[in-house]
Amino acid sequence: MRDGDALPTVEKLVDQAGIERYAAASGDFNPIHIDREFAARSQFGGTIAHGMLIAASISEMMTLAFGEDWLRSGRLKIRFRAPVYPGEAVTAFGQVGSVRERNGVREVKCSVGVRKPDQQAAITGDATVTVPLRQ
Q: How many Å separate Cα 82 from the centre of its chain?
């Protein structure tokens, strides 16, 4: 990987059934995610996906790009920008910002995000992964 290289994109269709499965797996049963009547009266006008459910697509993208190195050493700093609604397809994207070699490893810093179908950013942030120098 070199400065400026694009990372592979990951596309996901978010649906209410997936949101409810995530609620069960995570234990996060906030009604904004699973109670349609409650959510309809909220500022969002309906249920929204858990932020971490959407952020998982960034980790999937980083795993595609860096494999086990991401799983071993990945760090992610993100900001949630906009809600994601059931029925929306989101795309995780990223770009290598810098690659630095030191102490026998390569540190790769990337700008990452998730965008909604209208190109609005749902998540923005930075990811860093340490990749051993291979002979």
A: 13
